Description:
By secondary structure, the protein is an all-alpha fold. The protein has 6 helices and no strands. α1 packs antiparallel against α2 (24-33), α1 runs parallel beside α3 and α5 (104-129) packs antiparallel against α6 (136-143).
Amino acid sequence: MIPAPRQYSEWVTVIELFKGGENDTDVLEAMQHGELEWQSGVAERFSKRLIDAVNHRMNEATDKFQKDMGRTMGSESSIVRAILAVRKEMRFLSAALDLPVLPAEHREKLQELVQEQADKMQHSLEDSAKRDRSGKLLSIVRNNKVNSLKGV
């Protein structure tokens, strides 16, 4: 179990764990229960570290997704697994940014960044799938949306 961070230095450690993507359940719980005095200087440094960590994870998720899609060899189940895996990561990132320690407007802005990235991925997938004359790929992409971040 990871203790909930109370000071900026503790947050740095937890954000680095978050960035590394290991032990996500415990890291998320610690982040959800953490505290931080939202003051000038600390707020900016905290936000930058958190955004950098989220961007790192989104880039890794995108890279992994592209590799997974390259290995599908047209297998519908492999395509669905790849889409669901990247959606799961994007959902996690969105949930990780729903931190009580963040002011509401800041929290919403950060979650919008993840949603925008997921929307771009979905749009790109749909554009690519339109080249498939059978229509199967487009159907798969539309029935398993990367950008469905709310819900299950």
